[in-house]
Specification:
Histidinol-phosphate aminotransferase; binds 4'-deoxy-4'-aminopyridoxal-5'-phosphate; seven-stranded mixed β-sheet; Aspartate Aminotransferase, domain 2; alpha/beta; 37% helix; Aspartate Aminotransferase, domain 1; 2 domains; 12 helices; four-stranded antiparallel β-sheet
C-alpha cells in the first residue's frame, strides 16, 4: 500500500498562476494577476537589498516592527495584527483553524478560488451561493448557513468579478449570521475602492468578536513577489492564528519591504489615481469594441466576449502578441477574460490588439 494523504487533498487541483512566458515571444505584458503596474515602491527595493546582508539570521518571528508600521499606517492596534506569507496563507490558516472535516464553508458563487481550494483540502464542505448580477447575494449567503457552517468568506471587492457589495449589505450579512460563524472579509483590493461608505472591515471587526479582515501588499503596493499579507481581528482570533502559523512565516526581506513601502507617502494615491483613470479608459475602449465589461472596483476588468469560443480566441490572439490575461473558466465564467489595468501603454496595447490593429509585440 502506498502512503496516502487524507482523501480530500487529492480532490484539489494544484493552483496554476503567475505564468510569465509565451514561447517565441520576447516582450511579455503580464496582465493576469492583478499586480500593480509600476513595479515595487523604490524604498522597498532598497530595503530588500539591505535585508539581504542579514540573510544568515532568522527574521523576527513576531514581525513586531512590521506590525507596528501597519498599525500606524491604518490606525490599528498592532497586537491585533498578524502577518503572513501573502494573504493566501492567512486565509488558509483561518480555514484550517475554524473549518476542517465535518464543517461547511459558505462563499459566493464567483468568490476567490483559493477559498474553495483550501477549504476542500482542509476537508470542509464548500457551499457556493448563487449571485445576483455577479454580486454576492446576502440573503442567499445567510440562508445557506446550516448548523455545521463555521466560515463565511467574502472578497469585497471580489476577484474575478470586480463587484463591490455595498457596505449596508455587508453589515446586514454580519448581522444575519450566527455568532459562532466566522466572517472573513478579504479586502485585497480595498485601496482601489472609491465608495466613501466602504469599510474594508475595520469597523466590523471592532464591532464584534467574530469578524476578521485580510489585506495584502501584493496589489496596490506592488509587492506580489515578496509574499506579504496581514490580518486584523479580535484578540482571540489573532491568538489562534499565532498558534497555528509557522514560527518564521514572513521573511526578513518581506518585512523590510513592507515597512519601507508604508513609508512612501504618495504611492497609494498615485497608484489609485492611475487605476481609476485607466480602468475607465480601458472600459470605454472595450465597450467601443462591442464587449460587455462588468463594473469593477478593483484593478482589473471582467470582460465578457459573449461565448466561450470568442473568449478563447481573444485569449489566444492576445497571447500571440505577448499579452497575458486570465481565463476565468475555472470560476464558471467561460465567456469572460479578466484583464488587469496596466500602464497606459499596456492598456493601449490590449485595446489595439483586440481591435485587430496590434502588430506582434516583439
Ligand atoms: N484575495 C483575493 C481576492 C485575491 O485576488 C488575491 C490575489 N489574487 C488574494 C486574496 C491573495 O493575495 P496574496 O496571497 O498575494 O496576498
Amino acid at each position: 500500500m502506498p502512503v496516502m494523504p487524507r482523501p480530500s487533498i487529492l480532490s484539489v487541483e494544484p493552483y496554476v498562476g503567475g505564468e510569465s512566458k509565451v514561447p517565441g515571444v520576447n516582450r511579455i505584458v503580464k496582465l493576469s494577476s492583478n499586480e500593480g503596474p509600476f513595479g515595487p515602491p523604490p524604498a522597498a527595493i532598497a530595503a530588500i537589498a539591505e535585508a539581504g546582508r542579514e540573510a544568515h539570521r532568522y527574521p523576527d518571528g513576531g514581525a513586531t516592527a512590521l506590525r507596528e508600521a501597519i498599525g500606524r499606517h491604518h490606525g490599528l492596534d498592532p497586537a491585533r495584527i498578524v502577518t503572513g506569507n501573502g494573504s493566501d496563507e492567512l486565509l488558509a490558516l483561518l480555514i484550517l483553524a475554524y473549518g476542517g472535516e465535518g464543517t461547511e464553508l459558505v462563499m459566493s458563487a464567483h468568490g476567490f478560488l483559493m477559498y474553495e481550494l483550501t477549504g476542500r483540502w482542509a476537508g470542509c464542505h464548500i457551499i457556493k451561493v448563487p449571485e445576483k448580477n455577479l454580486v454576492a447575494d446576502v440573503d442567499g449567503l445567510i440562508a445557506a448557513c446550516g448548523p455545521r457552517t463555521r466560515l463565511v468568506i467574502l472578497a469585497n471587492p471580489n476577484n474575478p468579478t470586480g463587484a463591490l457589495l455595498p457596505q449596508a449589505e455587508v453589515n446586514r450579512l454580519r448581522a444575519g449570521l450566527r455568532e459562532d460563524i466566522l466572517l472573513v472579509l478579504d479586502s485585497a483590493y480595498a485601496e482601489y475602492v472609491e465608495d466613501p461608505g466602504y469599510d474594508p472591515g475595520q469597523a466590523l471587526v471592532d464591532a464584534g468578536s467574530n469578524t476578521v479582515m485580510t489585506r495584502t501588499f501584493s496589489k496596490v503596493w506592488g509587492l506580489g513577489g515578496i509574499r506579504l499579507g496581514w490580518a486584523y481581528g479580535p484578540a482571540a482570533i489573532i491568538d489562534v492564528m499565532n498558534r497555528v502559523r509557522g514560527p518564521f512565516n514572513v521573511s526578513a526581506p518581506a518585512m523590510a519591504a513592507g515597512i519601507a513601502a508604508l513609508s512612501e507617502p504618495d504611492w497609494v494615491a498615485k497608484s489609485v489615481a492611475h487605476n481609476s483613470a485607466w480602468r475607465a479608459r480601458l472600459t470605454e475602449g472595450l465597450e467601443a469594441l462591442g464587449l460587455k465589461v462588468h463594473p469593477s472596483h478593483g484593478n482589473f476588468l471582467l470582460v465578457d466576449f459573449g461565448s466561450a469560443e470568442a473568449s478563447k480566441a481573444a485569449d489566444a490572439h492576445l497571447r500571440a502578441r505577448g499579452l497575458i490575461v486570465r481565463g476565468v473558466a475555472v470560476y464558471g465564467l467561460p465567456t469572460c477574460l479578466r484583464i488587469t489595468v496596466g500602464t497606459a501603454e499596456e492598456c493601449g496595447m490590449v485595446l489595439d490588439a483586440l481591435a485587430g490593429a496590434g502588430s506582434p509585440v516583439q
